[in-house]
């Protein structure tokens, strides 16, 4: 008795109109050779113009993939050859985050709150008149800020 995979392979090989489906199945198989954390965040995978394009749904998954690009690249190149995916020239691997996913992760810088605790009650020990005047201007600014926030 034949397995369903054998039947499906024979149907796909004999019908050229089903080539895109065969390619999709091979790419889905290729995805299995990546770590689970990468697989779960992989939105799409295609081969186009001798490039293997990986679309991620989260920027951190993209960053993780890029950090380990050499390791993952070797695995993907080996498995592309094993699966028999046709490429006219050496396969380049490109990873990106889709614009739809990137829009969900807009970083907002945290708001910085600083409450000045100085009250301007320091003693001005400066002997130089210019330095003494500068410290007095600093004292005036601190006291004005303190009155504004009180």
Protein described:
The protein folds into two domains: 87 residues, GMP Synthetase, Chain A, domain 3 (2-Layer Sandwich), CATH 3.30.300; 40 residues, no CATH class. The chain is of the alpha+beta class. The model has no long low-confidence stretch (mean pLDDT 84). The chain is rod-shaped and about 100 Å long. The protein starts with a helix and ends with a helix. A three-stranded mixed sheet has the order 1-2-3. The protein contains seven helices and three strands; from the N terminus they run H-H-H-E-E-H-H-E-H-H.
What structural class do the secondary elements suggest?
alpha+beta
CATH architecture term of the largest domain: 2-Layer Sandwich
Distance between the termini: 86 Å
Estimated radius of gyration: 31 Å
Labels describing this entry:
alpha+beta, 150 residues, three-stranded mixed β-sheet, single chain, 3 strands
Write the layout of secondary structure elements.
Blueprint: H1 4-14, H2 19-31, H3 36-40, E1 42-48, E2 51-56, H4 59-67, H5 69-83, E3 92-97, H6 99-104, H7 129-149
Parallel strand pairs: 2-3
Antiparallel strand pairs: 1-2
């Amino acid at each position: 008795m034949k397995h369903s995979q054998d039947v499906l392979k024979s149907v796909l090989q004999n019908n050229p109109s089903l080539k895109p489906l065969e390619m999709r199945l091979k790419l889905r198989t290729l995805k299995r050779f990546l770590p689970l954390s990468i697989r779960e965040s992989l939105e799409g995978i295609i081969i186009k113009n001798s490039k293997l394009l990986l679309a991620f749904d989260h920027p951190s998954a993209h960053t993780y993939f890029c950090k380990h690009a050499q390791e993952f690249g070797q695995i993907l190149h080996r498995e592309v050859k094993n699966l028999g995916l046709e490429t006219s020239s050496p396969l380049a691997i490109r990873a990106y985050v889709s614009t739809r996913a990137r829009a969900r992760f807009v970083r907002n810088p945290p708001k910085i709150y600083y409450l000045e605790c100085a009250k301007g009650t320091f003693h001005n020990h400066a002997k130089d008149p210019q330095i003494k005047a500068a410290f007095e201007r600093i004292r005036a600014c601190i006291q004005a800020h303190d009155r504004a926030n009180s």
